[in-house]
Design a protein that fits this description.
With about 325 residues, this protein is of the alpha/beta class. Helices cover about 40% and strands about 15% of the residues. Helix 3 packs parallel to helix 4 and helix 4 runs parallel beside helix 5. InterPro entries: ACMSD, Amidohydro-rel, Metal_Hydrolase.
């Protein structure tokens, strides 16, 4: 079984919040034809998309052609809308969460859903997380690597992670609003350099702040193979050893990093082998970033090409690990 953990979706009929709330910072879906559209922000084309991004039927066609049994659906990060007034961002979250839940309900054998929450207000975010998990039946929450420039170790976010651990809610962390954006406009470096670096900051923040020590049962998965985080981990350990006066944890960063999960979207079997050796094959989850330009085609290609994986390891990475992370019992949930 192949489970593509990292895919994005948006409602075809998403409301025009730019018109409703009077700000052109909202992403707006403008149709260019029956099977294509532009995501517009501030009057500019943010991304050209096809019906793959909103049509479950088109997705299923692609899944069948590429050998994918189940997709895990998550919102497009640009729709997080952390910058907006909380009541407006909450409405955006609800529209997407309802859409994803309804899509899963329509095709329960092919999709599993993740929700989004307005983390600029933790109390409201927890309320929507509660609704996502306990009312809509979604299996986890996707959040960004920072909230309006604040790292995830800001004290105001602690209660969110506390409740996620208490309720057993898996958290998928995806880069957005990358650091150093003013230096990255050329060559699309925001996607190839900025996002991996942004993810490393988020992962290191959760560790060095003591959040992962305080909430040891918290389940967290990082997109894009964890970005550059796995490769700078020895340097983080060296910093922990060099500056004991700054320590907020009882163990070095590498100890807590073993609690993390990582998707497999790093394109290179050598990198997959490294992740397996450092963190264990149980912590690697197949993900493709469907349906966007940098996605892996077919999903799981890098896993197929990674040598010296035992059959049971390969099967786990391609499917079982995602279901375990999301607390899905395949025998009960998927026929």
């Amino acid at each position: 079984m192949r489970v593509d953990f990292h895919t994005h979706i948006i409602p075809e009929e998403i409301p025009d919040f730019a018109d409703k709330f009077g700000s052109d910072k909202w992403p707006v879906l403008e149709k260019t034809c029956s099977c294509g559209a532009n995501i517009m922000i501030e009057g500019n084309v943010f991304r050209e998309v096809t019906d793959q991004v909103w049509s479950p039927e088109k997705r299923i066609q692609d899944m069948d052609a590429e050998g994918v049994d189940i997709q895990v659906l998550s919102p497009i990060p640009v729709t997080f809308s952390y910058w907006a007034k909380v009541e407006e961002a909450e409405e955006m979250s609800k529209v997407q969460n309802d859409f994803i839940a309804n899509t899963v309900k329509q095709y329960p054998n092919r999709f599993v859903g993740l929700g989004t929450v307005p983390l600029q207000n933790v109390e409201v975010a927890i309320k929507e997380m509660d609704r996502c998990i306990h009312v809509l039946g979604l299996r986890g929450i996707e959040i960004g690597t920072n909230i309006n420039g604040k790292n995830l170790d800001e004290p105001e976010f602690t209660t969110f992670f506390e409740m996620a651990e208490k309720w057993g809610v898996p958290i998928f962390i995806h880069p957005w609003e990358t650091l150093g954006r003013d230096r990255l406009p050329r060559h699309n470096f925001m996607y190839t350099v900025g996002m991996p670096s942004e993810t490393a900051v988020a992962a290191a923040s959760l560790i060095n702040s003591g959040i992962m020590e305080r909430f040891p049962r918290l389940k967290v998965c990082f997109a894009h193979g964890g970005g550059s985080f796995p490769y700078i981990l020895p340097r983080l350990d060296q910093g922990w050893n060099a500056w004991p006066n700054l320590r907020l944890t009882s163990m070095p960063p590498s100890y807590y990093a073993k609690k993390f999960y990582f998707d497999s979207l790093n394109y290179d079997p050598l990198n997959i082998r490294y992740l397996v050796d450092r963190f264990g094959h149980e912590k690697i989850i197949m993900g493709s970033d469907y349906p966007f330009l940098l996605r892996e085609v077919p999903p799981g290609k890098v896993i197929d090409e990674t040598i010296k994986l035992r059959d049971e390891q390969r099967k786990a990475i391609l499917g079982k690990n995602a279901l375990n992370f999301l607390n899905v019992d395949i025998k009960e949930e998927i026929k």
